[in-house]
Here is the input.
Amino acid sequence: MEIDNSLSPLEEFYDKREIELARAALRLGDTSKAEGIWKEILSDAEKDLVQYGDRAVQAATELGNLQVAEFRWLEGANYYRLAAEISPSIPNLTRAGVFLWKIGDYTGAEHFERQVVQIGRSESSADSDELAAALSSLGVTLAALGKFEEAEDLYIEALGIRRSNLPPGAPALMKTVNNYCNTLIALDRLEEAATYCNEALDIRRAQKKENPYSYAVSLIVISVLEKKAGNFSTAESYLREAADIARLDEAYWGPRSPRYAQAIYQLGLLLDQMGNFTEAEALIEDSIDIIQSLNGELSPDLYIRKSSLAKVRAALGSEQEALALATHSFTNLKFLFDDPNHPDVLDAKRNLEQIQSNL
Here is the structure.
């Protein structure tokens, strides 16, 4: 935690002794004093945003940083949301969108990402990569909300910009290609999806030595296509290769690479569908451990995975344990998403009902 960098600007107007006490506490891992200072500053600044708006934004951002450092994603996202509402600049709007996405508030993320696109259209040229990035990011969020047709329009626009401005193998371009592929898969336009998935896979395979982890991501994406097309063996081979590559990512992340967690989770889902429940259980359990260590207890991804694990355990004959886990997962997802019709909530509900019906 950058203790001095975060608290130093306060020395011009805040009690220096309190600042030093907060710094000393932070060095011991105690954020409460720093949090108290920033909350006081935010409360005072909100009384006169015309004069102290910048100070309020700084306080809200620093409070968000403190929450996120302790995996309190919900509180952190709400402080970032406040900063963006006070000062809707692209950095503030983008940060709010990222962390609202992380807590599963896709509707909130959409709100801020639309503002980023609006600013991009008014302040950037029509062919700027900044606009393309904003369009692509909003497309991902809309796809998560099930708004696939609108997401497709944004991807097509973003791809048009990026194909004009970037070389064929540019990482940003391939990221948009992969995202568009995911949306085409969701729309059941598998032949079109295959064109884009294979484009990204071929380019990233050629770049494997320089960037193996992007190649692993493309393997995961195309595995979803193959799985949906019923080509389970091909999907499995892609996912096992992705997992082997992503496991090396631990050199950077330690034993908790998010790419590795995604690869083994998708492999676990596939093996569940193929009837290999024992290996599926082990892989999903490992992915849960990684996500929990990375994101804490308020991560929607944690309970999405736990719901999947409950389904596998029911298939293995541990019905009561599966029922408890499915109930726990569904309850937490309802709370985190606050939307009974959210796709992940509905999936968890279906898993729970299926387990209940088999008791």
Notes: The two ends are 49 Å apart (CA to CA). The chain has 19 helices and no strands.
